[in-house]
Design brief:
Elements (H helix, E strand, L loop, with lengths): L23 H9 L3 H7 L14 E2 L6 E5 L2 E7 L8 H4 L6 E7 L17 E2 L8 E9 L1 H5 L15 E7 L54 H38 L18 H34 L8 E2 L2 E2 L11
Parallel strand pairs: 1-5
Antiparallel strand pairs: 2-3, 3-4, 4-6, 6-7, 8-9
Helix pairs in contact: 5-6
Length: 336
């Protein structure tokens, strides 16, 4: 009888239920089943419970208490990022209590036994475990998770800190009202040290995509940026007015040059105008008006449009295109 197709479509072709991951002795039991219903029931479909063939055993420390169900764990103990000798707990430090909440130890690599039937026993793995909330009274959290220091600093062996770290494939922070990310609320940290580096920017917030801190730059303050752009546009308008004044003076000069005459040696009588220069002179005046002066006014309208579209919301009305606001300032998000 053909084996049942119990796999479902999953992201990146990862099988939802994979018999190939069964230990050999369990796989033999599975292969011995004769009907599709028996095979489906084996994996927990229906009212039966599923076998924990994908759940490794945990290397329990004498300082830890574990609550678990399948491959979901809550470990109460001391700071421990990996083996029994790791972290501040492994160094027998005081004041290093921890709570480690894990769903899916070893992620997709998880299994309960090796091929020879020996049970797989694992330590915490901050890289491979699928999802974790790690709470520690004393830790080197950036080192544990392999995080770049960014601009707000990195914990080190000389400067432990309490931490709450969250890691998973995706994170969603959902609030029915609002979310605040706030730093530097107290004068002392949990280790009794003074929080006195705010002036150096070490208590700020880094937004660091791809764990890459090579091009970290400060965030801008939107209202200040808008004022800067307004003043810049005002300065450009002033420069335009200065240039238009110059054009006006130049136009008067061009008219005088076109109509100018000289005095002849014959009793000081004025000569006639330079009729060869007359057409070219009027052409220059026309070009000056059409190609320069008019364009200055059009450019003024364009800059005014940019200011109203992106920097200002006249009467509270933002410019909207394709259901998207062009206004550069957010209604909802603020920073200092």
């Amino acid at each position: 009888m053909a084996k049942p197709n119990i796999s479902v479509k999953a992201v990146r072709n990862s099988k939802a239920v994979d018999p190939d991951k069964l230990p050999k002795y369990i796989r033999r039991q599975y292969d011995a089943l004769e009907t599709d219903l028996e095979r489906a029931t084996f994996f927990g479909f229906g009212n039966t419970s599923r076998p924990n063939y994908d759940t490794p055993s945990y290397n329990l420390s004498k300082n830890e208490t574990v609550v678990s169900r399948g491959n979901a764990w809550i470990v109460f103990g001391v700071d421990r990022p990996h083996n029994l000798a790791s972290g501040f707990g492994g160094r027998l430090n005081a004041h290093c209590a921890s709570i480690d909440l894990v769903a899916g130890r070893m992620g997709s690599r998880a299994n309960s036994q090796y091929e020879d039937g020996e049970p797989i026993i694992v330590n915490p793995n901050f890289k491979l475990d699928a999802a974790r909330i790690y709470i520690s009274q004393k830790s080197n959290v950036d080192k544990y998770f392999g995080l770049k220091p960014g601009t707000v600093g990195n914990t080190s062996g000389l400067e432990p800190r309490s931490t709450v770290a969250i890691k998973a494939d995706t994170l969603r922070f959902i609030a029915r009202e609002n979310i605040k990310l706030i730093t530097h609320t107290d004068r002392q940290n949990s280790q009794g040290g003074a929080c006195n580096d705010a002036i150096n920017g070490l208590y700020g917030i880094d937004l660091m995509a791809n764990n890459d801190d090579r091009d970290m730059q400060p965030l801008v303050k939107g209202a200040n940026l808008a004022e800067c752009l307004k003043e810049t546009l005002t300065a450009v308008h002033d420069l335009r007015d200065i240039f238009l004044t110059f054009l006006d003076y130049n136009r008067q000069f061009q008219i005088q040059m076109v109509a100018h005459t000289h005095y002849s040696a014959f009793y000081g009588s004025p000569t006639s105008m330079d009729f060869n220069n007359l057409p070219d002179g009027f052409k220059r005046i026309i070009n000056l008006v059409t190609n320069v002066e008019t364009q200055c006014y059009l450019q003024m309208q364009r800059m005014t449009g940019i200011q109203q579209k992106y920097i200002e919301a006249p009467g509270g009305a933002e410019t909207v295109k394709n259901d998207k606001s062009s206004y550069i300032l957010s209604k909802y998000n603020n920073t200092n």
